[in-house]
Specification:
The chain has about 375 residues and is α+β, with helices and mostly antiparallel strands. The protein is built from twelve helices and 14 strands. It is globular, with a radius of gyration of 21 Å.
Length: about 375
């Protein structure tokens, strides 16, 4: 017998909700689990400041008392007010290959959203763009990253059977790290540096980057990403939250900031060693030895670097600022022995962003999708 339960917001219940996917993908060589504690924090109204303008409900499916699926329904009132739409998001969705289970989960999410006046269900999306988003539709035999969703190939088949349709696609690339900075790229960087009086800056302490540019960094993200698909502006409270959560993890060698002659932030590139293998070994847990695997992932030998975030101030976009970022970062990638670099998901319609990889040997290796359905 199949049963759908709306779960509460206690840490115990949210851990069970999060752990379901770790168990579902046990032994899958391409799946990378999240840190369970991070997902619990994201889903907890007591911890996540996005609940200031979002509401959410988590549902789990059980068959004969055993968990067989999960889904979160989210309403981002800020984005809806900006877009003048009545969208509810679904995210944190996983299920066994059983159409009764997936249908029941999406019915629960849709019923909850419709009871609150929503008209469409879209996703997978989180509360904000810093959460995981997009269902994998190509690249099932590629190792996932800590910043993206992995799902089995049967997921999109279930979506289509349930009447969902494509709304937006993101694509991802893997690039070879070159032996040196490409000459043309170096020339572009030099021209841009002189023309706009820009320069790269570096830091020797995380406290320094937090104090001097922490808030500016997230304000730049708001500016650079504003207008992109379903972007949710970060509030001041969220910015404080993310500064505390993320900036302490940075390897300052793998961060590049570009400023103008007034020391105002113009561009940022944040990368970090791939944590995929470390997270697989940890199974999403810090204890008892998960922290050791994660520490080795951050400090140990690694052949892959993840390009976690690249953002450029709107008035400087498409003017070569990315060349300044990567002429700064490439020598560091070479020093660390990285052979490949992974891009973050990029909207398939954003050809200008994708063109920056033309200077490097690259291939598109994953595609992910946001679906919609009227409810």
């Amino acid at each position: 017998m199949l049963e759908i339960r709306q779960i509460g917001t206690s840490k115990k219940e949210l851990r069970e909700f999060t752990r379901f996917q770790v168990d579902l993908y046990a032994g899958n060589p391409y799946y990378v689990p999240p840190l369970i504690s991070d997902d619990v924090r994201t889903l907890s109204p007591a911890d996540n400041p996005a609940f200031d303008f979002c509401e959410a409900a988590c549902f789990m499916a059980y068959r004969d008392g055993k968990p067989v699926g999960r889904i979160a329904a989210i309403i981002n009132h800020q984005v809806n007010a900006d877009s003048k739409r009545r969208n509810a998001r679904f995210g944190f969705v996983d299920f066994i290959d059983d159409h009764e289970v997936s249908a029941a989960l999406f019915k629960a999410a849709g019923d909850w959203a419709r009871a609150r006046g929503m008209e469409r269900l879209i996703g997978p999306l989180g509360f904000t763009d810093l959460d995981h988003e997009g269902m994998l539709v190509e690249g099932f035999r590629e190792l996932s990253t800590m910043a993206t969703i992995y799902n089995y190939p049967y997921y999109p088949e279930h979506m289509e059977r349930l009447g969902f349709r494509k709304e937006s696609d993101w694509i991802e690339f893997v690039m070879d790290v070159p032996d040196s900075i490409p000459d043309k790229y170096a020339r572009i960087a030099d021209i841009v540096r002189k023309k706009f009086k820009l320069r790269n800056i570096s830091f020797t302490s995380r406290k320094q980057i937090k104090d001097e540019y922490g808030r500016a960094l997230f304000h730049l993200i708001n500016e650079a990403y504003d207008g992109l698909y379903e972007y949710s502006r970060l509030s001041e409270k969220q910015i404080d939250y993310y500064i505390s959560l993320y900036l302490n993890l940075l390897n300052l060698d793998l961060v590049s900031l570009v400023v103008d002659e007034k020391d105002q932030l113009v561009g940022v590139g944040i990368s970090m060693p791939s944590m995929s293998r470390a997270l697989q070994k940890s199974r999403g847990k810090m204890l008892p030895l998960g922290w050791l695997h994660l520490l080795k992932g951050l400090k140990g030998k690694n052949d892959r670097v993840d390009l976690m975030l690249v953002a450029v101030k709107p008035e400087y976009q498409n003017k070569g600022v990315n060349a300044l970022l990567f002429t700064d970062l490439i020598p560091k990638y070479i020093k660390y022995g990285f052979k490949w670099a992974e891009s973050n998901p990029e909207l398939e319609t954003n050809g200008k962003v994708q063109s920056q990889w033309d200077y490097f040997k690259h291939r598109q290796h994953r595609r992910r999708r946001s679906f919609y359905k009227d409810i």
